[in-house]
Design a protein that fits this description.
The protein is mainly beta. It has two helices and 14 strands. The termini are far apart.
């Protein structure tokens, strides 16, 4: 009986440790907003870790309350991809993500994508990431709509997220919600 309990404890520890080490995308909300504030605010999408690999494609899908929030677009983050060598010798740059702002506001769903069409020359990489200064994948811009009320709370929720590796991911090294190799933390926008 003791041996079985020890084995179960070891298995539980290994599973728990794997979950803790799984990279996580976290939505970072702003401080509570005044209902009368119609200025743009941002929600950062922060990554906890980027395993050593190259990731030439990435996408996210999130939902939001289109009747209370107006999506204004994606903004640059701080994470970098490989790039062309600059005059100072740096070969990393902050990539541009694409999304259709009008469709997002119509449907209440943001679908944003980054694609390196060279399959590696401009890919996300561990050189372009660090946990303190280069960990914001991108920023989402929003404004409160006039229907926002004091005391309201609006959810912004991941539906899907992927950082894809090359070669069809034969080794299962992509980071993806559906493969449980990428965790997510949603956020709430509070109105005061």
């Amino acid at each position: 009986v003791i041996i079985i309990l020890i084995i179960l404890a070891i298995i539980g520890f290994l599973i728990f440790r794997k979950v803790l080490n799984t990279p996580t995308l976290t939505l970072m909300p702003p401080a509570p907003l005044k209902a009368s504030n119609y200025d743009e605010f941002t929600v950062d999408i922060k990554l906890s870790d980027l395993p050593s690999n190259i990731y030439p494609a990435a996408s996210i899908s999130l939902t939001f309350d289109k009747n209370k929030l107006k999506f204004t677009g994606v903004k640059e983050g701080t994470m970098m991809t490989y790039g062309d060598k600059s005059a100072d010798g740096n070969n990393l740059s902050i990539p541009n993500w694409s999304c259709n702002v009008d469709r997002a506001n119509l449907n209440g769903e943001i679908n944003a994508m980054y694609l390196d069409t060279t399959a590696g020359k401009y890919a996300y990489c561990s050189d372009g990431f660090d946990k303190k200064n280069k960990n914001i994948v991108l920023r989402l811009g929003f404004k409160l709509r006039s229907s926002a009320q004091k005391g309201d709370v609006y959810n912004i929720t991941f539906q899907d997220a992927v950082f894809a590796t090359v070669n069809g991911d034969k080794k299962k090294t992509s980071l993806a919600m559906n493969m449980k190799t990428l965790r997510v933390k949603n956020c709430k926008i509070a109105v005061k």
